[in-house]
Amino acid sequence: MERAYFKGDGALLPRDIHCPETAEALAARSWDLLALTAEGCRLLRAEGREVACGTLLLPGEEPLPPRLRAERVVTYGLSHRDTLTLSSLGEMPVLCLQRALTPEAGDPSCGGTIYLCTADPEGNMVSFIQSNYTTFGAGVAIPGTGISLQNRGANFSLDPASDNCLAGGKKSYHTIIPGFLLKDGQAVGPFGVMGAFMQPQGHVQVLVNTIDYHMNPQEALDAPRVQWTGGKHIQLEREIPAHAGQALAAMGHEVEVLNSNLSMGRGQIIWRTENGLLVGGTEPRCDGMAAAW
After folding, report:
1. Which pLDDT band holds residue 15 (cuts at 50, 70, 90)?
2. What are the φ/ψ torsions at residue 197 (nearest 5 degrees)?
């Protein structure tokens, strides 16, 4: 049986259209970088759903190769030749965005999840996510315990034309993504941004903040976020400057500025520095905490 890829694989797709050169080139115009992030998240939903639901199945347990992810980006660009042009920075193709796109992904639903991570001086690290999903999950508890079983497989489709159609040997599309960052094959640390379909979008933005903008864990989590919710509609946290939102609207994005940021994901991070120091950050949008002992 082949493994159906989940949204953690798809989160690498929008990350691939970011690179240090991209970030540096767009730094002077923050709305361009927000547009790049928004289009990357659209790509995640439009192309990542195909990967996650088993239309594109790869053998073994290896993650989606960078070159294949790059080819998916290129294919997406070529199929929208009227709205995208392609250039190359280094070996990774980069999307140069000119106006907003309309992908074919559906509108997301909502759920409930918690995320935690831990690390110790010996180098052990854990990235852990738990979600019963809707209400009390499957509504079934393990006898003699208070543990209810989850129903994370609930996002299946019965439409035979859907990539996510329920079938044997496939996993339903889901959003459980405990993240882990490596550099040159060595562990940097566990991280995660949970919160329904914001999860991979939050992962991308936290990684961009960390890798491209050299933010520490708390800065990476504190930074304002953008979320694509369907069509050309994107949500901005109110901390994003008004002129950036106006510029995005001028590009054709349907911009909504949120008064509440509860739907923008909740994350935790622990990074291990080169000298072995553990540095943690916790989500300011909820009641998370970073504890040391």
Report:
1. low
2. -80, 5
Pairwise CA distance, residues 151 & 134, whole Å:
7
Decide if pLDDT at 192 tops 90: yes
- Supply φ then ψ for residue 31, to 5 degrees: -70, -30
Residues annotated as part of the active site? 113
Cα separation, 186 vs 107, whole angstroms = 37
Question: Tens digits of per-residue pLDDT, 119-158?
Answer: 999 999 999 988 887 777 888 889 999 888 888 788 889 9
What's the sign of the alpha-carbon dihedral 9, 19, 95, 75? negative
User: Is the pTM here over 0.85, yes or no?
Assistant: no
CA distance 16 to 212: 12
Query: Phi/psi of residue 163, each to 5°?
Result: -65, -25
Which DSSP string corresponds to 184-212? TTEEEEEEEEESGGGHHHHHHHHHIIIII
Query: How far is the C-alpha of 45 from the C-alpha of 108, rounded, in Å?
Result: 10
Tell me how far apart the alpha carbons of residues 38 and 228 are, in angstroms, rounded to a whole number.
6
